[in-house]
Fold this sequence. Notes:
By secondary structure, the chain is low in regular secondary structure. The chain contains six helices and eight strands.
Amino acid sequence: MLGLATRPCTPASLALVAVVACGDSGGSGDDVDPTGDGGAEVDAGVEVDAPPGTEPDAGPRVPFSFFVTSLDTMRSQSGSQDGFGGDLGGLAGADAICQTAAAEVGFGDKTWRAFLSTYNDGSPVHAIDRIGTGPWYDRNGRLIAADRAGLTAGNRPAGDAQTVNDLPDENGTPLTTLGDSHDVLTGSNTAGRLDSNSAASTCQDWTSAVGGTAGVVRCGHSWPAASGQHWIRAHTVRGCAPGVNLEQNGPGEGDTVGAGGGWGGIYCFALEP
């Protein structure tokens, strides 16, 4: 009986699904394992890196849709140790600050908005209307509020007491850890709407870093203090100039956004939970 001729193995022949195995001089008809690994499957696919936070061993990401811009990000994004002051580049610039800060911690895939109101030439834009419908969570996955009503129900949002009484930055760090740091720009009243019917009350719709506007521009408190309990409308800042103050010294000195304690931070909300 004549045997089958032996054929040399080549990459092309290994890729073919054939009845006759390359290099086989017999004709038994049994299935032949072309890999020689005892039947183990070969993964011929190309490995592709998964997006950050979605790797199989990373588990699902925590829900994250709210933060106060940290001192570090305001300094790095502005290129100044004093931060931006009241000139955030308007609403578009403020949104970009939020977007950049979120991207730095791996959540740039969401759409972020700054919680700021503007006069807008007499056609106000209200902060509460810019941020979606909720729910919102901090960087640690703790509830800030389930909806807009929860944001404006009282002095603090109607969420987890561990976070609403000490609102954290994009890293999940409570602002109390940095000293007297509670002033957060809003330009808004307790309902999240424009606080005063003038552009001066919003640092010229967040395009001015000029001082001398004490008693006009409204800020809220990231944590309750003797000078104000409300997270949106606690008191006014001393001016729109850039400046950082982490010392407890009453109303502070000078005409900067941070004079009373802070760095001119802003609240950021994601449109998606």
